[in-house]
Amino acid sequence: MAYDYEKSLRPGKLPHIWCPGCGHGIVMKGLLRAMDTCGLEKNNTALVSGIGCASRLPGYVDMCTLHTAHGRAAAFATGVKMARPEMNVIVMGGDGDGTAIGGNHFIHACRRNIDMTYVIMNNFIYGMTGGQFSPCTPTGDKASTTPYGNPDPTFDISKLAIGAGATFVARTTAFHATQIDKLIAEGIKHKGMAIIEVLDDCPTTYGRRNKFRSVVDMMKRLKDIAVPVTAAGKMTAEQLEGKILTGVLYKEDKPEYCEQYAKVIARAKGAK
Amino acid sequence: MAKKVALMQGNEACAHGAMYAGCTFFGGYPITPSTEVAEVLSNELPKVGGKFIQMEDEIAAMASVLGASLTGAKVLTATSGPGVSLKQELIGYACIAEIPCVIINVMRGGPSTGMPTGPGQSDVQQAKWGTHGDHATIALVPASVQEIFTETVRAFNLAEKYRMPVQVLYDEIVGHMRERIEFPEPGELEIINRTLPTVPPEQYKPYDTSFGDVPPLAAFGSGYRFHVTGLNKAQDGFPTTKAEYVDAEERRQVRKVEGEVARAQIELNEEYLTEDAEVLIFAYGSTSRSARYAVNELRKEGIKAGLFRPLTLWPFPEKRISALGKQVKAIIVPEMNLGQMNLEVERVVKGSCPVISIGRVDGEPLNPGQIIAQVKEVK
Amino acid sequence: MSKRYEIRFSGAGGQGLITAGIILAEAASIIEGKHAVQSQSYGPEARGGASKSEVIISDSPIDYPKATVVDACLAMTQESADKYANGIKKGGVLLIDSDFVKNEPKGDFKVYKMPIMRTAKDVVGREIVANVVALGAMIALTDAVSREAGLQAVLSRVPEAFIELNRKAYAQGFEDMKKILG
Predict the structure, then answer these.
(1) ipTM score of the complex?
(2) List of domains in chain A
(3) C4-181 — its CATH code?
C-alpha cells in the first residue's frame, strides 16, 4: 500500500515551488517518513528553515513551522529549543543558507551539541537566486557567477560538522531515498546535534551549466560517487578518489546543551 | 513596610526591570556599554527557571529571542550601536512576523566601532528606520536609573500588547551611572501578557484581524500549529503576493501603533514649566537632565524656558510638539548626535517657530552650560 | 554643605577608586537618604591607566549627573593628578598621595597631602585597602557624609573576613586627616 504522505502535509499548500527533477521533494518525503517512524507529535515538533529553495519545505508540512531569515535557522531553532526543550526541533535548509551566510550559526549549534536535527540539502548551488556558486560548488564548476569556472575551494559539510562538535553526522544522497528517512530518524533519536547531509541535485541552475544532460545523469552521478562508509575500509585510495562516504560518519555521546543548562538552573536554585 | 532600595547602575536596573516584567529568556552577545544587563540576567534568570544564552553573534542573539518568543516566552536582548546595526535584519523579521521582544540599546558614539566607552544618542533615527521596509516602531528613552527599571517593564508590556519589537534606548551615561532605586512591590506596576487565541486550534490564524489590529499569538508547543515567515503573508500566515492582502497587512501593522487610539496608549511625555514657556527645550535621555538643570538656572534669571521630555520617542509626539511650536518663540533640541530628532521636531512644527539643534558627538556629555548659552542667544 | 556637592576620586585603574565612589554614594543615598549619583570613566585597559569616579551629593534630585566644578578631588597618582585635578572649585580641596604626586597641581584650591598607599601597607597592613584609607580621609576632609554612615557603607560592601581590616583602614584614613586638619 502506498505510504500516506498527505496526513503530514498541509492541505491546499501543494504544488510546491521546486522544479521538476529537483531532489528536495525526495528529502521531504524522507523527512515525513522519519517523523512517522519516530512517532513525533505534530503539535510538539518545530520545523525551522532559513531562505532558499530547500527552506520553503516547512511551509508544506503540518507542524509548528518557522521560515526565518537567510542563514538564521539554526539560531532561531536554538531559541525555540532552549525555551521549550520538550519540543522536537528539526532544521531544514540548503548548503548556501547553512554554510555561507549561516555558517557561524551552523558551527556554533554543532559546538553546543543542542538536541536538534539539521537536514542540510546540499545541491552545490544557490538555486533560488538563479545559480550562483555556493561554498559547496565544486572547484572548477560553472555557476552564474563563475563563468570561467569556480576558483573557490569547497566545504565538506559533514567534516565541518564533526570538527565543530556535532555528535551525530550522517550523509546520503537524494538517489538513496530509502536511506534518507533511516538517517533522519536516527538523527532525531540521537540526543544532541545531528547533522544529516543529503547530496542533492539542482538540474535547473547547476546541472545544465555543468554538462549534465538530464536529471537522470545527475542522479546517476550521485549514485556513482556514493560509497557506504562501511565499505570504504576495504577500498584503496585510488578506488576512493572522487567518491564521497555515506551512512553514519560520526556518532558520540556527549552532554547535551539543554541538559547542561538544566544543571545551571539547579545550581542557581541552590543545588550543590 | 519600607520598600527595598539599592544603589545601582542603569544597566543593572534594566535587568531587574526585565525580571519584574516576567522575562524568562535572554539571548545576547557581549558589547560595551550594555554588558552588565547580560551579566545580571545570567545570574538572575536561572534562579526562576528562566534561560540565558550567550550566542555566537548579535544576529544569532536576536534570532534566539525570536525563536524563544514564539514558544510563549517573554524575551529580551541587549546591545549597543554596532550590535543594533547587525540586529536590524531580524528586527524587521520581528516587525513583519509580529513577534513580541524587547531590545535594549545602550547608545554609544558611532558610526562603526566609534567610541565604545563614550556616550552617544546617535541611534534614535536608526531605531525608527534602521531595518528596511515600512514598519511601525516603538522606542522608549528613559533618563534615570529608576526610569530604566520602569520603562523596561513598560517596554515588555508594549511588546506583548502590540505584538512587536520594542526598543529601549538609553545612553552610556545612564547605563553606567549609579543612583538610588526603589524597587516596586510585585503587583505595583501593571504587567501585560500577550493575547492568546480563544478559538480552537483548527480555526486559528496567526494574523486574524477579526480580533482587531493586534491578532492573538499562539505559542509553539501549546497545541496550535501555524506557519511563521518573513515573507509578506496573508491572515493565515502563509506567503502571498496578492496585492490586496499585502497592502492590507502592511497598513495594519503600521496602524496598530500609529493609529490615534494606540498612540494615546503608547505615547508618554513629561513637561516641565511649559505652560508659560517662551523657549522650549526638547530633550530626551541623559540630555534631558542637562536640559532640566538649564531650565532651572534660566528661570532663576527670569528667562521663561520649559522642557518637553518624551519617554516614548517613537511614535513621535506629533500633536503636542506641533501645539507647543505655535506657543513658543523657539524650540531648542540638544542631543548627543548632529541633529537627528531636531529633524523630526522641524518636520512637525512645520515652520511655526525656529528649531535649533545643539549637537555634541565628541564622547562627552552635553552639559547644561551649552543649553543655557543657546537659550540666551535666541532670547 | 552646599546644595550640590561634587567629589572626584582619581588614580590608577585597579586601585579601587570606583568602589570608593560607590561606597560614598551608598552612604549618602541609602544610609543618609540624600540624593546621590556616582559615575565613572575608564580607559579600555582593565588595570593601570588613569581612572576616575565621581559622586554628586545633593539635598534635592540631581539633574545633570556629571561633575561641573568639583568641590573635592582625590589624586592617588601623578597621571591622575595631571589629568583630573582640574576643574576644582575656587576654595575647593585636593588630597594627593604625597609619595606618588610629586608635581603638585596648582590652582585656587587647598592641597592636602597624605602618604595613602604607604599608610595602607605599613600602618593598616595591606596595600589593597588604600582606597578605604583614602575614603576615610576624604570623608574627614569634606564632611560629605557622617563618619558613621561612611563606615556602615564600607562594612556592608566587604566580605566577613575583611571587616576588621577595612574598619581599621577607614579609621586610619579618617584620623590621619583629622590630625592634618588639626
Answers:
(1) 0.97
(2) 16-268 (3.40.50.970)
(3) 3.40.920.10
